[in-house]
Write a structure and sequence with these properties.
With about 290 residues, the protein is of the alpha/beta class. It has a domain at about 255-285. The chain contains 11 helices and 10 strands. A hairpin with a 2-residue loop joins strand 9 and strand 10 (about 230-235).
Length: about 290
């Protein structure tokens, strides 16, 4: 059973959180703890990056956010409601999850059918489900609505998977390694889409990442995950420039932080940057 006690260490500042993973521990059947004493929060209209090596607990955490897993200890609150086995279906209407393997989420005969599947399951009429699907496909920029999903490129499949979640009108989007295994052009496209979902549609986004430079460019807040817990969190300019912290978590400095350091920009009074484009702009001023 989940504990009724709130975790003292994440009580402060949690009142405005729309997601509150409150002192959660989850044990797998073999006794392994996927996450331990985990405190994690998401606030409205922000992008939070979860960064950590394989096995750190990122995937276990995100599967708790939409109720695919339930805690053994602690609680997960979404918009002030504790997730439990009785309300998990309702919670999933607010929290959309896109898996790392987009192909596993695509199973219908056509792209349009696939994206309509979620709205139809919500009880919408075929006409309304089609409108939702066409709206979502328009947001992600997919026009190949009659194609068989498995014949699309990897980047297109990822976009269709995101569209399938957006068609259900979630307030929170959780994405596991959204650009892993994609070519640079599709990775940039996905990154731009996630940014626009926050800025133009007010969706809060949680992304599990290995790409530290993407985290620097995209995230409002970065959480470093190690051993099933959040070991540090803060602004990208702070967290992703702390080489000792990152190495202790099995991570490396992003390229942008390394180049900033190697060029001696901080000693010259330049503020910390989050993208290589910002470094180029500094150098062009000289």
């Amino acid at each position: 059973m989940a504990s009724e006690n709130a975790c003292v260490k994440c009580a402060s500042g949690s009142e405005d959180a729309i997601v509150h993973v409150d002192c959660v521990t989850h044990r797998y059947p073999d006794g392994t703890e996927g996450i331990h004493n985990m405190c994690f929060r998401v606030f409205p209209k922000e992008i939070v990056a979860l960064c950590g090596p394989n096995g750190a607990g990122k995937s276990t955490l995100i599967e708790h956010i939409n109720g695919l897993m339930l805690p053994d200890v602690g609680r997960v609150r979404i918009f002030g409601k504790d997730i439990d086995k009785w309300n998990v279906s309702e919670i999933r209407k607010s929290v959309g999850l896109v898996f790392q393997d987009a192909d596993s989420q695509l199973f219908s005969p056509t792209v349009l059918d696939d994206v309509m599947f979620g709205p139809l399951n919500l009880g919408l009429s075929p006409e309304e489900a089609r409108k939702r699907a066409e709206w979502a496909l328009g947001i992600v920029g997919i026009k190949e609505t009659t194609k068989i999903p498995h014949y699309l490129s990897g980047g297109q499949q990822r976009l269709v998977a995101i569209a399938g979640v957006l068609a259900m009108n979630p307030k929170i989007l959780v994405v596991d390694e959204p650009t892993g295994d994609l070519d640079p052009s599709n990775a940039i496209r996905i990154e731009g889409l996630l940014r626009s979902l926050r800025d133009e549609h007010g969706i809060s986004i949680v992304i599990a990442l290995h790409d530290m430079d993407m985290a620097a460019r995209l995230a409002d807040r970065v959480c470093i995950v190690k051993g099933g817990s959040i070991m540090a969190e803060g602004r990208p300019e702070d967290i992703l420039y702390d080489e000792q912290l990152l190495r202790s978590a099995g991570l490396e400095l992003p390229d942008v932080a390394r180049l900033y350091r190697d060029l001696g920009l901080e000693a010259r009074g330049e503020k910390r940057v989050r993208s290589l484009d910002e470094i180029v702009a500094i150098l062009k001023r000289e």
